[in-house]
Design brief:
The protein is mainly β and 372 residues long. 2% of the residues lie in helices and 43% in strands. It is built from 2 helices and 24 strands. The strands form 5 sheets. It has an 8-stranded mixed β-sheet with strand order 18-17-16-15-19-20-21-22, with no helix packed on it. Strands 3-2-1-24-23 form a 5-stranded mixed β-sheet, with no helix packed on it. Strands 4-5-6-7 form a 4-stranded antiparallel β-sheet. The longest helix is centred in the middle third of the chain and has 5 residues.
Length: 372
């Protein structure tokens, strides 16, 4: 589990989310910036969208971690302290303390300890969430899936699973046509459930699953398939390479293939610099991004697959060679799953600025969205 910050301020500061929309073409690049919650200078070549949605950044718990899942008419924000639903105009539907939300699941020590993960499965109209829970020596991860055609703002309308012996750190949710996967970091385990059964509540509250165990030394994430695909894709990043596995077959008899190693040049040169600017972050000194400050083999965030292409990010060391201090930038790689050919490879960064907590996804037009 991540260490608690020593100087955590009791004042809640809504975190700033910054996105760059970059369609990578041979000769041109298009950059569009979306700023939530504040106005920030962006390059003159970028189109700026500013929302009045004040819902971004519900007060956090032990760490400044949050994740959102966007459905057709509701947005779920999950933090270590709150489970919050909003309408898309920013109106709060409900906000529930996380210990209250999970109160009907016995948790050792009554502790929801962080690293919340959520996702909206648009192909099937379901929300999913996972959180670390329990105390040292009694680790578990809670996996919740909203019921079909039911109001997700009511905790009673979720299927609820407890996975014991799941070490409490950095969980990740993957979804395919026929599988739901939960990967937890420290104990090198990937739990695979039959998606149809999990979505129908046909597993017991504490499923007796034999986890897949491979690659104990790399931070891995199972991917969310946003187009129809029965293969579970699992990825990680190391110095100079992407490591990639597939899990095929049914959840009852999964077949792991890999790792396939995709060499990524370690040169520092930017590919089509978006020219992003970072706002003043002095107000966030109690929210220092500890884990993703690592430049080598940094963990990848939640990752998506669309039409046979994985789009992923991680934090890398960046030395611009201009006398400015070495810092970090966001590396973005998109590769084809069929032959592991790298289609895009670029970095988002700027001299003297630290870029962390990257995330990327591709839409149905082939546009890459990068947030940091």
């Amino acid at each position: 589990m991540r260490p608690m910050p020593l100087n955590r301020s009791p004042v809640s500061i809504a975190p700033l989310l910054r996105f760059e929309f970059a369609r990578r073409l041979r000769a041109t690049s298009l950059a569009v910036a979306l700023i939530l919650g504040a106005l920030i200078p962006v390059p003159s070549s970028a189109q700026r969208f500013t929302t009045s949605a004040s819902f971004v950044g519900a007060p956090g718990g032990s760490l400044s971690e949050s994740m959102i899942a966007v459905g057709p008419d509701k947005i779920l924000e999950l933090t270590p302290q709150w489970v919050t639903f909003f309408q898309k105009n920013g109106t709060t539907i409900s906000r529930t303390h996380i210990n209250t939300w999970f109160a009907d699941q016995p948790i050792p020590g009554g502790v929801i300890s962080g690293d919340p993960v959520c996702y909206y499965d648009a192909l099937r109209g379901r929300y999913l969430m996972a959180v670390m829970a329990g105390t040292a020596g009694s680790d578990l991860t809670l996996l919740w899936i909203s019921k079909e055609n039911a109001d997700p703002t009511n905790p009673a309308n979720w299927w609820k699973y407890r996975l014991h012996d799941a070490q409490k750190d950095y969980p990740g949710i993957g979804v395919t046509d026929d599988k739901v996967a939960l990967r937890v970091r420290n104990d090198n385990r990937t739990y695979v459930l039959d998606r149809a059964q999990a979505y129908a509540g046909q597993y017991p509250a504490e499923p007796n699953l034999t986890p897949l165990e491979f690659e104990a030394t790399t931070w891995l994430k199972p991917c969310r398939n946003t187009t129809s695909d029965a293969t579970l894709h699992i990825i990680g990043a190391t110095a100079g390479a992407v490591r990639y596995w597939t899990v095929t077959g049914p959840a009852t008899n999964p077949v792991v293939t890999g790792p396939m190693v995709i060499t990524i040049p370690t040169v520092n040169g930017l590919f089509g610099d978006i020219g992003t600017e970072q706002p003043d972050t002095s107000a966030f000194n109690s929210c220092e991004p500890r884990l993703l400050r690592g430049h080598v083999a940094a963990p990848v965030p939640e990752t998506y697959v669309r039409n046979g292409k994985v789009t992923m990010t991680w934090t890398v060391e960046r030395n611009y060679g201009d006398g400015s201090p070495t810092t970090s930038s966001i590396r973005v790689v998109r590769f084809r799953t069929s032959d592991q050919v790298v289609l895009d490879d670029f970095q988002v960064g700027k001299p003297g600025m630290t870029y962390v907590f990257g995330s990327a996804v591709e839409d149905n037009n082939g546009t890459i969205f990068v947030g940091y």
